[in-house]
Structures are given as structure tokens and as C-alpha cells.
Amino acid sequence: MSSKAKKVKPDKEALKKPIEVPNCEVREGEVWYPPDEFLVYAHDVMIRRYGFWSGFEVGLEPYYHIIEEVKNAEGIYRKAAILLKRIATSRIFQDGHHRTAFEVTKAFLEMNGVVFKEKDELKIIRFIKNIRKYDIEEIEGWLKDGTL
Amino acid sequence: MAHCKKPYEILIRNIKADDRILKGLNNSAVKTE
């Protein structure tokens, strides 16, 4: 990904094409944590498909701290809540933090054997857009069973 | 190597399934209150 930001329009052709999948290492029986290249890949797909500003703002340094905080937390839902809130409210990229945080957190839950429960799309959109208002405990509860 | 691709496969499957959510997150017209 380029470090220079440029405005990207949604690409209708990109929506039709298969998305290329890079390789990665996954160890059985351990908690899987999304590596930085996974975060960048997810963000790139978001910008390609849905548009707006590409590139980094402050870069990946905050993400390394986020992952350390996630590793130090107890329980998959608590870890996921930290991952979701911290990515969504970070300034890693120029744009697309909420979208990227949501999909990276969903993949994190699923990779660690947990299903994201909330199915109501409007509720999900509202919750993610308002994520700054919620603390980690509230986000953990919402991820567990959709309650606040 | 199929297992190694799993997180990316999950991500892509979810992104496709969540198309309306992702468009909604990108749309300031969706009211948050």
C-alpha cells in the first residue's frame, strides 16, 4: 500500500472480480491474532470496494500497541472488544477505520471459534458508527449477545 | 496450504456477506441516533 493518500472512487469492476488471497501462517490450538498485513489487506479491500481516502495517516505503530493490549486481555470477547474499539478510533489510516475494525474483529472472533451474534444490519451500523460512546465492557457485552 | 488461507477466506466471505453494512458504515445518510 502506498503511504501517499489519494482519493479513491468505488470501483464497480472490483466488486465483480474475485479478491486475491495471500498466504499466512495459522497455528492450531492457539489464539489467532490478526497480523498487521491482515489489517492492511482488509483496509485495502475496503477502500477498493467502497472508496474514500487510501493510505496511512500515522501508520501501523498504534496497531502494535493495540495487539499487545489484546494479547494481555482475558477472554475472546474482551479481546475482540478492545480490537474493535481501538482500531475504529485509531488514526492508522486516512480513512475506513470503522469498516476495517468491524471486519477484522469478525474474522478474529471466527478464527477463534466464536460467532458474531448480532444479525440486525441497522443495529450493527449504528453501534459501529457510535463506538466512541461505548466502553470496553459495553462492547464486550454487545459482541457476546447483542445487549448494551 | 489451504488452512493457511483461512483468515483471509473468512475475511473475504464476510466482506461479501456484509456488503449492505459496509455501505451503511460508509454512508453519512444512515442516522446513528
Provide a descriptive summary of the structure in words.
The complex is a heterodimer of chains A (148) and B (33). Chain A has one domain (33-145): Four Helix Bundle (Hemerythrin (Met), subunit A), CATH 1.20.120. Chain A has helices at residues 12-16, 36-50, 61-72, 76-88, 97-111, 121-129, 136-145; strands at 7-8, 52-53. Chain A has a two-stranded antiparallel ribbon. The longest helix of chain A is centred in the N-terminal third of the chain and has 15 residues, at 36-50. The model of chain A has no long low-confidence stretch (mean pLDDT 90). Chain A is mainly α and 148 residues long. Chain B has helices at 6-17, 19-25. Chain B is elongated, with a radius of gyration of 14 Å. Chain B has 33 residues and is mostly helical. Chain B is built from 2 helices and no strands. Chain B is 58% helix and 0% strand. The A-B interface holds A 19, 21-26, 32, 34, 38, 41-42, 45-46, 49-52, 98-99, 102-104, 106-107, 110-111, 121-122, 124-126, 128-130 and B 1, 3-12, 14-15, 18, 20-26, 30-33.
Looking at this protein, list some descriptive labels.
heterodimer; A: 148 residues; mainly alpha; Four Helix Bundle (Hemerythrin (Met), subunit A); two-stranded antiparallel ribbon; 7 helices; 2 strands; 3% strand; globular; B: 33 residues; 2 helices; 58% helix; elongated
Mean pLDDT of chain A: 90
Rg of chain A (C-alpha, Å): 15 Å
Sheet with most strands: strand arrangement of chain A = 1-2
Give the helix/strand class of chain B.
mainly alpha
What's the helix-strand series of chain B?
HH
- β-strand percent of chain A reads under 5%
Mean pLDDT of chain B: 80
CATH superfamily of chain A: Fic/DOC protein, Fido domain
**How many β-strand stretches of chain A?**
2
Proportion in helices of chain A: 40-55%
List the helices and strands and how they pair.
The complex is a heterodimer of chains A (148) and B (33).
Chain A: E1 7-8, H1 12-16, H2 36-50, E2 52-53, H3 61-72, H4 76-88, H5 97-111, H6 121-129, H7 136-145
Antiparallel strand pairs in A: 1-2
Helix pairs in contact in A: 2-5, 3-4, 4-5, 4-7
Chain B: H1 6-17, H2 19-25
